[in-house]
């Protein structure tokens, strides 16, 4: 098993390295870090700009291969992912933002999984009854709502609520109030700030689990072995829960394993709307500020999370499904 | 969808559960044979949500085509005498935005822009995915491994980043957006098609074609692709819905369609800053985009149920 | 636990255990209401076995599912089924669940899918026990192991912890039986319990079922399409057709004197293992009716050779043959046929009900095989696969010798039957031949041309024309999205025919040749019945005018009444077109009927080969003998009297090319040998050797001792 994981990990690692380097060249081709300086007052000469950029290994006059070599050796030797055009450390940014994103997305992911799977089980055993159709209708709606719409609708609702109450019960922007202090104060502030983004994220992501779990369970409800279980003397419900559910939950679990690492890559739209400085927002910012190193680091991080997710999914299958045990 | 009816029609080749053998005799098709198209139509029309989706989509397309002729405002033209007016004021049916653009004209244009992008991307990705997936499945062995390796590599590429880079570089031209969304949009679908086609590869009629010396290209086009036809139709429909979402998201954060062109995504982005002062700038495009995606999703689910006799679910697998 | 046995098992005297009256089941469908079961009645007494026979779609499985309450919700069931005090059909799921598994156990057709894949075999049996009995986990586990032992699973202690995918089909079916009898049921319903299994395993499972019945004293309902299985295991038989029972009688009476034309037709259509006749089989013409909006008429009328006008006026009820005098006794013989009184011994008014069809061409006398041209020659062909272990990480742990150095020769106009259990390498052999690529080892030559020498595309396509294949599954081998015309035109186009008129003419000719109406060329495969689809498959194979047809189980997916017609067609075509066949089948009766020569395959090797009569009449290899003896005969008397050679265990996997005989793990002869002889079996691979008779060779060191000792 360990050997298998190791082999897979090596394969993924090579792909990540390749993809990251490709991204580096693409980003260098499309992003112009110099534009961060052109708008400055007093205006600077191109030589001055290039001089500043050279400090951060972004000078467009240096051959791209040289810059790549410098960048690469920085990563390999010091795990230093470089600097932004204005000199900020990419490492610092990523380290800080991973936590912010994780904090934001963790709650909604867990809620979405629990709610979605429970709903899938509930509706599958009531196939074509009213509650099934009603929930399914809602899920189709939420599954197909663009996250921007969901997030903004939540904001709109919260604004209306706050206006009606006359106080800011639910803050619609930021991760916490800048002027609170003390552990409990910060905690409370963070909690209230997280409520709205969590609602909007849960709303758009629970439906995937609901519809998946429902259709998988329905596939298994009509399987031969559920019939055998009923022939042994289980009622239909018991047979579905004891035999159908255990088998059908395996693909859902792999999906969850796949989704978990994506927590830390954040939710671009939601972070933008709610002004959380997480990885998603960083991603948008790196592109709009022509931050080559930041953008590549985000891409590499995303690829790493995909790889971890894929490996986790394999591990989950092996753990849950005796048919795929590696001896 | 009202009842889970036993299947017949041209797809009775699926393994039949023995418990309903009496209901399933392959002979059922003979005396009262419905043509497949009629059968699919009957199944589809019985599915009321799907029918509603179809009507809705039809109306949206009609609106995006006829809409521009119902107003004298152009979506690019700014009415500086009425900035940010509410719907109905100054002859602006849906009001204007902060720059004085007529919201109705923008909405119609944005809708048609979103529909064009989504339909062309979905059509292209489905075609590429179908050919790529079936080819990999047909040849198997090393060819298959190499092709799948390529797909995996594309999957790990930061597609969103590249789309954003390229999209920004070309100043949000929608044709460029179609290209990049297609290039990075077909891989997951082709994996699904590949896994389905590998089971077709083992089908005896494909083996028979091979043993008769039918050329690989012909076998792929005549046997493999038509037999995943229903999946392709469903994929296309759902692909439209997901492309609308992708395009909206891209435009929303500023990497998709750009000024002066308008899509539903850019309208949402504009609307987010005036939620409390000019909410119509948000909810009009929001309603439009949700109607569009939900309509496509309902059609897709309905088609899946209608075309697939073994399908018991209206859900997404 | 076995006190049920004290209850009178004499039928007719005691209260029946199960009494079914007027059972009806309907399903909704796109075409209308399907009447799957239309009024079935029978009584079943303790300790007795009732066989329900019928072809697919006759409603036999639906009947059993209705009794168990396992039909889907949308099925509507009416009638009475009294088991003990209860009318089973009126109980809800909860009440029925108390009966299911406790008073009724059920065995399903497909053992591969009927066990939950993620639970161990032992825990699934424990669950069956604990649902109905208040047992501690330890006690239940102990009992589960006992049950596994009872059904003949070796090392039950260890195997109980195994998962279903680690068990072979036969072993899984044993586990299902263990589960069905776990709570000592009064009634065991076996729904095609052996259809998915090989003959040697089928014989074992039928034996286990008998053991189970003896242990529990239960009554058994045996549902099958195989008249041989019924003959060997049932006391009474119900023949079902179009959702009704059309004939009911004690087994001996039914087989000795069937009175319903359908039953007579079924029996006549079966090729017999115990007769060497090469006459045409007698198919039952037509196909069963649609069970939608049935008219009030005998449903068999359209297919019946002795139909009268009155038959179409009202559906005849199931009534005693020859009046009411025998009605009350259990030995009553009932039929649903107006003319059954006139029928005796398969004849009516002195003429047989089903006249034997004429062969289209009389077989040209077989000249000695050697003088004819060789169409196909395999020598020393070997095909190996890497044996991998583990689900995700595939490690190569050995080599499977799927085909291990086999020699086969087929002459012009000859049919070679290749027989063996699934997994013996038959299909791999076929694919090796059809692939037209040089084998790993050995040589394949088609009409004298070595495939290793085929370099140019043109050469390959020339050889392709000469050799074509007919597949097992008539539905799976035809593209459902193509019309019959396109299906038949495809091979013509593939060999370069472009002229539309010529193609059309050839397609019409082909359809005519296989007995299909050329008018139907615009239809899709789904519009045809199974037998017709197989004819389309044959027509497609004939399109390029091949010299050799490879037939992979061409009739095993067909119902008996249809199978006979296809076999006749194959025989006619062979004579008419001078074809040679390589006929692969697991059904030895069919092989006996159609082949000139036979090769028996075991673990990738040919273990016996010779002329059909020689091999079937005087089998020499112990495996061939076991195979022949495992086949149930559709004759209850012969079934009861003949001696069985039961093979133990399953087909092992042909890993690694160790010397020695591959059959020793299951060989009954091996057990009787002396130690030095056993040593020889283990150490020396037996070669195919000719003994006395020409053209009859076997690969057993001690075939002689066996033959002499036995005769």
UniProtKB/TrEMBL annotation, chain A:
Predominant subcellular localization, coarse grouping: membrane
Pfam families associated with the record: BPD_transp_1 (PF00528)
Record keywords: Cell membrane, Membrane, Transmembrane, Transmembrane helix, Transport
UniProt entry tagged with the keyword Transmembrane helix: yes
Parts of the chain that traverse the membrane: 12-31, 104-125, 137-161, 191-212, 256-276, 296-320
Localization annotation: Cell membrane
UniProt membrane topology term: Multi-pass membrane protein
InterPro entries: MetI-like (IPR000515), MetI-like_sf (IPR035906)
Occurrences of domain ABC transmembrane type-1 (ranges): 98-317
Record family assignment: Belongs to the binding-protein-dependent transport system permease family.
Protein name per Swiss-Prot or TrEMBL: ABC transporter permease
TrEMBL record, chain B:
UniProt-listed Pfam families: BPD_transp_1, OppC_N
Superkingdom: Bacteria
Residues in ABC transmembrane type-1 domain copies: 111-300
InterPro entries from the UniProt entry: BP-dependent_transpt_permease (IPR050366), MetI-like (IPR000515), MetI-like_sf (IPR035906), OppC_N (IPR025966)
Membrane topology: Multi-pass membrane protein
Subcellular location: Cell inner membrane; Cell membrane
Residue ranges of the region described as Disordered: 1-31
Keyword entries, A-Z: Cell inner membrane, Cell membrane, Membrane, Peptide transport, Protein transport, Transmembrane, Transmembrane helix, Transport
Transmembrane segments: 50-70, 115-139, 146-170, 176-200, 220-241, 280-299
Family listed: Belongs to the binding-protein-dependent transport system permease family. OppBC subfamily.
Protein name per the record: Oligopeptide transport system permease protein OppC
Annotated organism of origin: Streptomyces beihaiensis
TrEMBL record, chain C:
Similarity comment text for this entry: Belongs to the ABC transporter superfamily.
GO MF terms held by the record: ATP binding
Protein name: Oligopeptide ABC transporter ATP-binding protein OppD
Xref: Gene3D superfamilies: P-loop containing nucleotide triphosphate hydrolases (3.40.50.300)
Keyword Thylakoid in annotation: no
UniProt key word Hydrolase: no
Lineage per the UniProt record: Bacteria, Bacillati, Actinomycetota, Actinomycetes, Kitasatosporales
Domain ABC transporter as annotated: residue spans: 20-267, 376-628
Tree of life domain: Bacteria
Gene: oppD
Alphabetical UniProt keywords: ATP-binding, Nucleotide-binding, Transport
Organism annotation: Streptomyces beihaiensis
InterPro entries linked to this entry: AAA+_ATPase, ABC_transp_ATP-bind, ABC_transporter-like_ATP-bd, ABC_transporter-like_CS, Oligopep_ABC_C, P-loop_NTPase
């Amino acid at each position: 098993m360990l050997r298998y994981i190791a082999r897979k990990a090596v394969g993924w690692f090579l792909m990540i390295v390749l993809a990251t380097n490709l991204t580096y060249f693409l980003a260098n081709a499309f992003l112009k870090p110099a534009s961060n300086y052109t708008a400055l007052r007093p205006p600077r000469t191109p030589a001055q700009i290039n001089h500043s950029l050279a400090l951060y290994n972004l000078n467009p006059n240096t051959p791209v291969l040289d810059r790549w070599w410098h960048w690469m050796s920085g990563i390999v030797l010091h795990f230093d992912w470089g600097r932004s055009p204005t000199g900020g450390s990419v490492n610092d940014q990523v380290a800080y933002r991973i936590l912010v994103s994780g904090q934001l997305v963790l709650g909604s992911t867990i809620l979405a999984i629990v709610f979605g799977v429970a709903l899938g089980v509930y509706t599958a055993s009531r196939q074509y009854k009213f509650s099934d159709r009603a929930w399914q209708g809602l899920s189709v709606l939420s599954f197909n709502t663009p996250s921007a719409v969901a997030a903004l609708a939540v904001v709109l609702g919260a604004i209306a609520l706050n206006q009606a109450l006359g106080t800011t019960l639910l803050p619609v922007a930021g991760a916490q109030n800048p002027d609170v202090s003390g552990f409990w104060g910060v905690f409370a502030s963070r909690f209230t700030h997280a409520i709205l983004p969590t609602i909007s994220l849960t709303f758009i992501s629970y439906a995937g689990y609901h519809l998946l779990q429902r259709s998988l369970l329905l596939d298994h409800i009509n399987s031969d072995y559920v019939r055998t279980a009923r022939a042994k003397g289980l009622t239909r419900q018991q047979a579905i829960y004891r035999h159908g559910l255990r088998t059908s939950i395996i693909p859902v679990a792999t999906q969850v394993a796949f989704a978990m690492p994506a927590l830390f890559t954040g939710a671009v739209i939601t972070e933008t709307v709610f002004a959380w400085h997480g990885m998603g927002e960083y991603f948008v910012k790196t592109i709009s500020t022509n931050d080559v190193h930041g953008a590549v680091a985000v891409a590499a991080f995303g690829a790493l999370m995909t790889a971890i997710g894929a490996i986790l999914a394999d591990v989950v299958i092996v753990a849950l499904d005796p048919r795929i045990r590696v001896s | 969808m009202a009842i889970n009816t036993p299947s017949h029609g041209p797809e009775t080749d699926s393994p039949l559960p023995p418990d309903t053998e009496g209901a399933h005799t392959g002979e059922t098709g003979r005396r009262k044979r419905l043509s497949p198209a009629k059968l699919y139509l009957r199944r589809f029309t019985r599915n009321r949500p799907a029918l509603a989706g179809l009507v809705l989509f039809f109306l949206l397309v009609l609106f995006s085509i006829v809409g521009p002729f119902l107003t004298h405002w152009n979506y690019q033209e700014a009415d500086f005498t009425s900035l940010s007016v509410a719907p109905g004021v100054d002859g602006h049916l849906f009001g204007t935005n902060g720059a004085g653009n007529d919201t109705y004209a923008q909405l119609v244009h944005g809708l048609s822009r979103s529909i064009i992008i989504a339909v062309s991307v979905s059509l292209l990705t489905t075609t590429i995915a179908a050919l790529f997936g079936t080819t990999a499945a047909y040849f198997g062995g090393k060819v298959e491994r190499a092709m799948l390796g390529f797909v995996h590599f594309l999957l790990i590429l930061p597609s969103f980043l590249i789309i954003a880079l390229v999209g920004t570089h070309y100043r949000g031209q929608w044709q460029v957006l179609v290209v990049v969304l297609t290039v990075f949009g077909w891989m997951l679908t082709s994996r699904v098609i590949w896994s389905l086609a590998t089971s077709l590869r083992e089908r005896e009629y494909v083996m028979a074609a091979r043993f008769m010396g039918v050329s690989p290209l012909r076998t792929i086009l005549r046997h493999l692709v038509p037999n995943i036809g229903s999946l392709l139709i469903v994929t296309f429909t759902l692909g439209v819905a997901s492309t609308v979402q992708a395009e909206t998201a891209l435009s929303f954060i500023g990497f998709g369609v750009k000024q002066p062109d308008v899509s539903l995504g850019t309208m949402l982005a504009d609307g987010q800053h005036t939620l409390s002062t000019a909410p119509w700038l948000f909810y009009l495009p929001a309603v439009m985009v949700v109607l569009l995606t939900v309509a496509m999703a309902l059609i897709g689910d309905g088609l899946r149920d209608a075309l697939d006799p073994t399908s018991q679910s209206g859900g997404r697998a | 636990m076995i006190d049920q046995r004290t209850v009178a098992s004499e039928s007719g005297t005691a209260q029946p255990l199960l009494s079914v009256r007027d059972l009806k089941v309907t399903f909704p469908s796109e075409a209308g209401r399907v009447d799957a079961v239309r009024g079935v009645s029978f009584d079943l007494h303790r300790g007795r076995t009732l066989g329900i026979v019928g072809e697919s779609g006759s409603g036999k499985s639906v009947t059993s599912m209705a009794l168990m309450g396992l039909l889907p919700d949308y099925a509507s069931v009416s009638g009475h089924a009294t088991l003990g005090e209860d009318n089973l059909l009126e109980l809800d799921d909860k009440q029925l669940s108390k009966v299911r598994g406790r008073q009724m156990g059920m065995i399903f057709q497909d053992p591969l899918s009927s066990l939950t894949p993620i639970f161990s075999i032992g825990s699934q049996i424990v669950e069956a026990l604990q649902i109905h009995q208040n047992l501690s986990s330890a006690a239940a586990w102990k009992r589960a192991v006992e049950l596994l032992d009872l059904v003949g699973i070796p090392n039950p202690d260890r195997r109980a912890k195994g998962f279903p995918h680690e068990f072979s089909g036969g072993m899984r079916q044993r586990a299902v039986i263990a589960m069905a009898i776990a709570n000592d049921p009064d009634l065991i319903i076996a729904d095609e319990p052996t259809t998915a299994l090989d003959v040697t395993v089928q014989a074992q499972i039928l034996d286990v079922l008998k053991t189970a019945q003896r242990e529990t004293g239960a009554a058994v309902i045996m549902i099958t399409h195989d008249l041989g299985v019924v003959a060997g295991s049932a006391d009474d038989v119900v023949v079902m057709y179009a959702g009704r029972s059309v004939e009911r009688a004690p087994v001996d009476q039914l087989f000795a004197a069937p009175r319903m034309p359908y039953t007579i037709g079924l029996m006549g259509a079966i090729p017999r293992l115990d007769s060497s006749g090469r006459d045409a089989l007698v198919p039952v013409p037509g196909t069963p009716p649609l069970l939608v909006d049935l008219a009030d008429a005998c449903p068999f009328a359209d297919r019946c050779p002795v139909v009268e006008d009155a038959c179409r006026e009202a559906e005849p009820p199931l009534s005693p043959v020859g009046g009411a005098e025998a009605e009350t006794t259990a030995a009553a013989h009932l039929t649903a046929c107006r003319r059954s009184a006139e029928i005796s011994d398969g004849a009516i008014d002195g003429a047989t009900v089903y006249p034997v069809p004429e062969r289209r061409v009389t077989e040209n006398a077989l000249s000695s095989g050697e003088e004819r041209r060789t169409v196909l020659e395999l020598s020393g062909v070997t095909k190996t696969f890497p044996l991998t272990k583990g689900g995700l990480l595939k490690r190569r742990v050995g080599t499977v010798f799927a085909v291990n150095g086999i020699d086969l020769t087929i002459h012009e106009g000859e049919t070679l039957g290749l027989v063996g259990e699934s997994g013996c390498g038959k299909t791999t052999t076929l694919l090796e031949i059809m692939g037209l690529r040089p084998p790993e080892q050995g040589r394949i030559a088609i009409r004298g041309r070595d495939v290793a020498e085929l370099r140019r595309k043109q050469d390959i396509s020339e050889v392709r024309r000469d050799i074509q294949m007919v597949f097992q599954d008539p539905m799976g081998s035809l593209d459902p999205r193509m019309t019959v015309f396109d299906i038949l035109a495809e091979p013509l186009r593939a060999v370069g025919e472009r002229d539309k008129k010529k193609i059309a003419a050839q397609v019409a000719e082909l359809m005519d040749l296989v007995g299909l109406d050329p008018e139907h060329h615009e239809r899709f495969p789904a519009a045809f019945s199974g037998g017709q689809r197989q004819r389309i498959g044959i027509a497609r194979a004939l399109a390029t005018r091949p010299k050799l047809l490879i037939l992979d189980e061409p009739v095993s997916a067909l119902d008996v009444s249809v199978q006979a017609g296809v076999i006749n067609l194959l025989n006619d075509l062979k004579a008419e077109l001078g074809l040679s066949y390589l006929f692969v089948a697991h059904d030895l009766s069919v092989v006996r009927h159609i082949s000139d020569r036979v090769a028996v395959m075991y673990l990738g090797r040919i273990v016996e080969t010779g002329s059909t009569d020689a091999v079937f009449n005087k089998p020499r290899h112990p495996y061939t003998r076991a195979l022949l003896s495992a086949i149930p005969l559709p004759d209850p008397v012969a079934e009861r009297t003949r001696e069985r050679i039961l093979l133990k265990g399953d087909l092992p996997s042909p890993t690694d090319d160790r010397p020695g005989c591959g059959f020793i793990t299951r060989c009954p002869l091996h057990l009787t040998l002396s130690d030095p002889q056993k040593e020889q079996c283990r150490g020396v691979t037996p070669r195919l050797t000719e003994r006395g008779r020409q053209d009859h060779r076997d690969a057993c060191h001690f075939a002689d001792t066996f033959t002499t000792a036995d005769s």
